[in-house]
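Slide 14.
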Amino acid sequence: MHGEGTHPRKWAAGAIAALAALSLGVFGANRLPVDRDAVATAPMTARAWLAEVNALRARYDLLPCTGPREATNFRAYALGARFRGLRATTPVRQCGAPYRAAYRTGPTIAPPNYLMVAYGDCKVRSDTGCAPPIEVQTFPACERNLATYSADPSGALLPHRSLRVRGAPAALFDQGTRLEIYTGRSTVVIFGDKPKLVRRAAEAVRPLGGSRLARLAPAAASTLQGKLSCAEQGAGP
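Slide 15: predicted structure.
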């Protein structure tokens, strides 16, 4: 859950292909009343499935999922076609319906809603998979921002270091191997093996398919405080 502040970087071989469209695995885990094989072969059924997922998301003030051939309804970011000699992968979009995990009796869990671009490749050496040298994920700010993270039930924020990246507020986590940039109504999350590489990637962040910006628009104070609802985000530019 994005509110818990953890997003695994590793994936097994072949997972990128499985997530190249809107993730069927996420939907399947929610036990929606749709046959998975039928969805894979019937576009009309897939659209109906997406409508049902979005009805559930609206109930919990989550931004609607966009279809696999649609642009995201939040501005996505990347590092260009290449970064320090590393080629960008095909963007991966993941979004799904809220669900309640069997091991948990608390609030309903919202699955990740992001667009991801990785740079470089990795060789899988075990069942745990591997992670590329650099990975950029973009989330809608109403679903992921600094205020959504707590380290314990007291509401204490996860350990981090606050800074600014090209005019936008940002936070460093995990000894510098994860950097989050809060720009406009998007949260850009950069994962990397080395803190120095993560910081260099932050200087290269740009809108997906666009050119590098000298400055990044800062997120509004209300967004950083977790006060931006997804209903408001969906209605805004």
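Speaker note: The longest strand covers residues 134-140.
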